[in-house]
């Protein structure tokens, strides 16, 4: 039997390679459709240079090799073609799921763990469908593509005598004419393409030229510019603005050099005696090292399970420390009195905070804590229904009122769906905030902001797992309180709550292996931890048949309930003060819920298929809201509800197609990924709903401030807390928030997932927001949150000059000047974080 030519492997291999490469590049160009169409058309041929060279090289290998070399050429070419096919299918799948561009370096990092690989494989169905379509098309087009390339290339190089060229139809003079014309037009096209390539701007067109499989081989992002080392607004550092030290306040007198940071810590405060937790490194300077600023690790005292991590983290002593008096961006409000309602409440009754529960809400959006009938999300839901009467609207409101009733009850913010929430209920008090922005849209980096009151490292993924934080985290401070009590134990340690030691516990029902979370949690100073790996074990206390994992990370929060209850009970039995941090996870993609949970369809029949992801997210939020009620009941059952401060905060938001073209947080700067709920709940706190255009970096100093002002620390611990409150970058949220001071703005920095490509730059003093690209692959983006609170019409540009010109045209000279200032401050902040984290960019 004679096999048809289009079934020969060389033809099929070339066809798969060509169609995969072209599909990949066309999708890549489409993702840059914000560029002017005229320029895309002009430079269009230059985008395919690498593809053409690859196609020609593979054709030469397949066409000219014989014998054993032919077999090697077929195998090698088939490998390249299959790689291209799989990569292109992955690109299409990723775009269909998220609306954004896949980054191969990030994919390798995420796929390094089993859970990360499961996350990647969640897009397997569209990937297989794309691969199938390309494969079938390649099969059908194989002969045509082979003939087209063979005729063209043979005519250029006079290779046709032996294989294809003599089969061309027509007399010899016609073949000669084809050859001459092919060479002529090839030379003309090549010359024009090279000319356009030489004159086109580097940004973003160099990035658009990359071709598979070359883009998979390594990191191709290039730094956009030389980073700014010195603070770019020196006029704000004039001597007239300096502030003297007073009491616990360290003063403010920044200089343009690093001497104040390298020498900070030489003068130890009264409490920095004896063994200190690892994060207090700046006060561990040995006498012989004082002159050099080198830190000695001889006084570091950590738990046994942290030893290995801290040995690695301190392998190279840090020489540059955070100095609050040298921070040119720092604004303090600790000289202001606490908010009046809090002062009044403290006059009326004691507000004991003997325990702290810190709840991280995965993908916690402020507009879902609680959902209100004044939100844009509600309007989008309502628009999918045909509502003809008040009864129809009442039915819809009744359904929506069931999504976040616990959040509504805790915050006292009425949803407007008819649920009865008494905002004056004295049994439910607390400070709820609008306007708070996450410090990072990557969960692990966000934890650092919330726990430690610092800026995360603006590089991709979690290098922080190997570095002791440059600020003591809340758990380190509690450990310091414990160590001082152990040095001078009190006779009333078991009976007096303020003399008891703290027990720091971390609990989540999902894996701790993803991105090495267990390493980070140990480094941050927790005494105990719970992950799905602990729940999984057959000898676990509450292991049972039928345990159901709801996603590729682990179990629903309810599986952790009995373990959390035991941790609370055991801590109280030991007469210790509880610090429990709990991370919810059901609201992470793919928004699965346990089998027994009844899922609702919140969007109506109009365009229902367009809202499937948001529908799943709303169901996951309803499940987590119910769980928060269960968690609060655990505290009540343990008898500590009236003496526990519970902090609820979103680790970051979550963008959907209802918000912007790109779904998720990855390389997505949209504001919905940064607006998060923040609530400090205590039954005896006054109910306050505050609008503060601030950052989660303020959480730690606020907790310390609350502990001091509610007399929830003994005298020694209170003095330490007062001293440490003045060491942090953030302001206290129980005092009037300063949006600006002496010309300085209260900047809000947000590291965008995965960390090293984009930075969100905002300010409490203005309604503007700049998304700053840190490499050449992303655009500048400017929004006016007063005029466009949902960022529906952002201004974008591939250069700062282009963006600033459009900002000036649409928003005036003040916005124009702020955008340029924000770029400089953001770049300085990036370099300063790297210095503070003792991080060096790889060569």
CATH architecture of the largest domain: 3-Layer(aba) Sandwich
Broad shape: globular
Tell me the name of the CATH class of the largest domain. Answer: Alpha Beta
Determine the strand fraction and express it as a percent band. 5-15%
Secondary structural class: alpha/beta
Q: Estimate nothing, just give the exact number of structural domains.
A: 2
How would a crystallographer describe the biggest sheet? 8 strands, mixed
Number of helices: 25
Indicate the mean pLDDT: 86
- Which spans of ≥5 residues are poorly predicted at pLDDT below 50? 1-7, 159-178, 286-315
Q: How much helix, percentage-wise, in residues?
A: 25-40%
Distance between the termini: 59 Å
Secondary structure: number of strands: 15
The CATH homologous superfamily of the largest domain is termed Alkaline Phosphatase, subunit A
Q: Order of strands in the sheet with the most strands?
A: 4-3-5-1-6-7-2-8
Round the Cα radius of gyration to an integer and report it: 30 Å
CATH topology of the largest domain: Alkaline Phosphatase, subunit A
Helix/strand layout:
Layout: H1 9-30, H2 37-43, H3 49-64, H4 67-98, H5 104-110, H6 114-121, H7 124-157, H8 172-199, H9 205-209, H10 259-262, H11 307-313, H12 340-348, E1 355-361, H13 376-382, H14 390-400, H15 405-411, E2 430-434, H16 443-452, H17 474-487, E3 502-508, H18 517-523, E4 528-530, H19 532-536, H20 561-573, E5 577-583, H21 612-637, E6 644-650, E7 678-681, E8 687-691, H22 699-709, H23 715-725, E9 740-741, E10 744-745, E11 747-751, E12 758-763, E13 768-773, E14 780-784, E15 795-797, H24 800-811, H25 813-836
Parallel strand pairs: 1-5, 1-6, 2-8, 3-4, 3-5
Antiparallel strand pairs: 2-7, 6-7, 9-10, 11-12, 12-13, 13-14, 14-15
